[in-house]
Amino acid sequence: MSSSSSYSGREFFELALSSGVLRFGEFRLKSGRVSPYFFNLGLITQGAAIASLGRLYAQALLSSSLSCDMLFGPAYKGIPLVTSLAIALAEQGFDLPYAYNRKEAKDHGEGGRVVGAPLTGRVVIVDDVMTAGTAVRESIDLISTAGATVAAILIAFDRQERGQDDKSAVGEMRARGIQVISLASVGGLIEYLHNEGGHATALARIQEYRKLYGC
To answer: What's the structural domain count of the chain?
Structure first.
């Protein structure tokens, strides 16, 4: 799967900042760490913004030249993401089936936990970030149980931050031989802020935080 499309993180950071998805300050995380930035794709709430995000996901996936057969979005944030990606890919001539899961199995109607196309072939999991990686692990189990294969995990932002041990959730997946593609990373954010200027305080705090918790 490839095209002439190329991907740069600059447009992603511009969208994230203008939409309030990426903010600077002091934010206490579930881990107890106080982060100098906060990233939340749930703040994409406008049609134009989710369409732009879908195109950025598509550019990142196409630029990777990954071979895949379908897309999967973990509930709940992965559902609009996989939908917007499927639309963006179709606009570029790659009409892929997609599916997503319910949090709990449905025992009437079509039943089951998976909605959409049957899980088959090489599947790309589409999500926002991987912190603990719980939703992704559940998705991998669903896909494997169906007899399909995880081709890659496509996420918006890689914090490049270790968990309770020396490895991040992203690092754990890569150690398992699963490719992880990200639209952007904290390393790219540092480069972007440095090049743009005007963010000296935020840049210094992020660099110091990365020294403490970076992978």
So the answer is: 1
Q: CB neighbours of 98 closer than 8 A, spacing ≥ 6?
A: 70, 71, 72, 73, 82, 83, 85, 86, 116, 117
Report the CATH number at residue 27. 3.40.50.2020
Structural domain range at position 206: 9-213
Of the pLDDT bands very low, low, confident and very high (cuts 50, 70, 90), residue 215 is confident
Show the tokens assigned to 33: 């760490």
| Known catalytic membership, residue 108 | yes
Query: Is 38 among the domain residues?
Result: yes
The catalytic position among 30, 77, 103, 108 is: 108
Task: Identify whether 3 is part of a domain.
Answer: no
167 classed as catalytic? no
139-163: per-residue pLDDT in tens? 999 999 999 999 999 999 999 988 7
pLDDT at 208 exceeding the cut of 80? yes
* Of 106, 167, 194, 211, catalytic: 106
